[in-house]
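Lab notebook, bench 4. Still working through the backlog of constructs that have no structural model yet. Next entry is a single chain of 124 residues. Request: give me the C-alpha cells for it.
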Amino acid sequence: QVQLVESGGGLVQAGDSLRLSCAVSGLSFSTYVLGWFRRAPGKEREFVAALSWTGGSTDYGDSVKGRFTIFRDNAKATVYLQMNSLKPEDTAVYYCARNFRYNDYHDEGAYDYWGQGTQVTVSS
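Model written out:
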C-alpha cells in the first residue's frame, strides 16, 4: 500500500519559515520524481516544487522561486519543503505527490499518488 504522509504545517507570521515533510512508504522511493502542490481557498491546485529521484534536478513555481527549497533524504524516504519568507498568499493546504512520468513536473495529471495534505496558514 502506497502512502504519502505530510506533516509540519501550522500557523506562522509573515516572514517566518516552516519546513514540511512528506514520508513515503509502499514504493521504491529513490526512483521517482516527487513534488509539492498547494491549494488555497477558492483556487485550483497549484504546482509548488518538484525534485528528481537523484535530487539533481529541481523545478519551482514562479510564486515560490527563491523562497522555497525542495530536497529529499532517500535513506529516510522523505521529501521536504523548506519555506522561507512566508507570505499570507502562501496560505494553503500543501500536498506531496509521486510523479510517474518522470517529467511534466507542473502537470498534476503526471502525479498518481497523493498525500492527505497539511495546512499552512500565514498571518499578516
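Notes after review: The first strand starts at residue 3 and ends at 7. The chain has no helices and eleven strands. Flag for follow-up if needed.
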